[in-house]
Amino acid sequence: MKVQSGQRVVTTPQPVASAAAATEAAPAPASGGWVAKTNKASAASPAASATETRNRAAAETFLAAFGRRDLGALEQLYRPDAKFKDDMFTLTKRSSIMGMWKGAPPFATFKSEVLEAKGDVVKTRWVVDYEMFGNKVHNEIESTLTFDADGKVASQVEHWDRTKWMSQALPMVPKFLHGVAYGLMGPLLSMRLGG
């Protein structure tokens, strides 16, 4: 350390400490003081992480049953009053949701993944190939599942590229009429399934 007094400079030798030693020598925070974010996150309520772990596992089970087209297993994973919304359907009960899945065409390929689990909400993605009206469709869907306290699906919200889907499934419909076609098909199909 250098101390300057007028024209005279005094140098006091200081011990050299390694970064590891400095870290070890750092005082521990007082019990009521600031805690680093990483420590705080790891010490967060075990119930929250247990819920997320349970919901992630439930979402993986759900996607596996869906990919196998195991409708019995899938039905057990929805609450009776489950809600479903995508770019085509708005459904407000499990029986209607199951009617939709029963009417879905068989999958040529199916891949899925869980993207994120936060609290009761799990974001997933599934990619599927199938035929509709004799046309090959490749669809990539983002599906957000919300679980209840028992690990059942309370709601499911899905999104995909509507223009791409319409161009594949209904190529005879011009692009400028896609919005009109969706506007007509959605409510009719939802009503047909019992809403």
Question: What can you tell me about this protein's structure?
Answer:
With 195 residues, the protein is an alpha+beta fold. Helix 3 packs antiparallel against helix 4 (71-77). It has a single domain (49-192), classed as Nuclear Transport Factor 2, Chain: A. The strands form two sheets. Strands 4-3-8-7-6-5 form a six-stranded mixed sheet. A two-stranded antiparallel ribbon has the order 1-2. It has seven helices and eight strands; from the N terminus they run ββααααββαββββαα. The protein has helices at 19-25, 37-42, 46-68, 71-77, 94-103, 162-169, 178-192, and strands at 2-5, 8-11, 78-85, 90-91, 107-118, 121-132, 135-147, 153-159. The model is unreliable at 2-6 and 8-45 (pLDDT under 50).
Strands, total number: 8
Shape descriptor:
globular
The main β sheet shows up as: 6 strands, mixed
Order of SSEs: EEHHHHEEHEEEEHH
Overall mean pLDDT: 80
Query: At the third CATH level, what is the topology name?
Result: Nuclear Transport Factor 2, Chain: A
Helix proportion = 25-40%
Helix count, DSSP H or I runs of 4 or more residues: 7
